[in-house]
Design a protein that fits this description.
48% helix; Spore Coat Polysaccharide Biosynthesis Protein SpsA, Chain A; alpha/beta; 19% strand
């Protein structure tokens, strides 16, 4: 089972080198790395180029970038990873085992926020629990999807926010996700910069507004 690891980036010079160096062992095991840039103005492209199988340019927007990567991917499974993430050891084996032995062909990881503040432990636990109860995965949780199923649902919807929520809804119509308990570390920079409580309230507000029909384009302005 070959995995295509697709990483959307924009001005991620601070993070992308570390992540791609960590992922070189996956290339050694036959998987491929695809980075999709959307107009970085720093050294992101220069750093990523020698460390990936494909380096693409796509219009701004995480959904458009991930779809562009998926179109050229050769893997049986598409794994969408953020540049500020750190995958658990042998994540490829965890994914393969989950999709081979389970009843589903898509899933995600539990997450751990990178900061040390005790409140972040509560936040990450609630995020993992919410996802497990609802079957909705977020991009931070590094969604993986069998290529055939991704094509069947038409990929990520072309919207600037909540594309992970929407594709989860579409995928759930076929199967519930595999929820891996192994933790993927993701950056807590937004939480730390904006404040934990303030960020929680903002996320709740955005999700509630989206649930009640506010278009993603309007929510993008508030999200920043």
């Amino acid at each position: 089972m070959k995995i295509s690891i697709i990483i959307p980036v924009r001005n991620e010079a601070e993070n992308i080198g570390r992540l791609l160096h960590e992922l070189q062992e996956y290339r050694d095991r036959g998987h491929e790395l695809i980075v999709v840039d959307s107009g970085s103005e720093d050294e992101t492209v220069c750093i990523a180029g020698p460390l990936v199988d494909y380096l693409l340019e796509a219009p701004a927007g995480r959904a458009r970038q991930m779809n562009a990567g998926a179109r050229i991917a050769n893997g049986d499974v598409l794994w969408f990873l953020h540049a500020d993430s750190q995958a658990p050891d042998y994540a490829d084996e965890l994914i393969k085992n989950a999709l081979t032995n389970g009843a589903s062909t898509w899933g995600r990881f539990d997450i751990r926020l990178s900061g040390s503040n005790w409140s972040l432990r509560i936040v990450e636990s609630m995020m993992n629990l919410r996802s497990r109860l609802t079957g909705i995965a977020t991009g931070d949780q590094a969604i993986f999807i069998h290529h055939d199923l991704f094509d069947k649902v038409g990929g990520f919807p072309d919207q600037c926010l909540m594309e992970d929520v929407e594709i989860s809804k579409m995928l759930k119509k076929f199967q519930a996700p595999v929820s891996l308990r192994e933790k993927l570390v993701t950056s807590s920079r937004r939480w730390e910069q904006n404040g934990v409580l303030r960020t929680i309230l903002l996320m709740w507000l955005l999700r509630a507004a989206y649930f009640f029909g506010v278009p993603a384009e309007k929510l993008c302005i508030r999200y920043g």
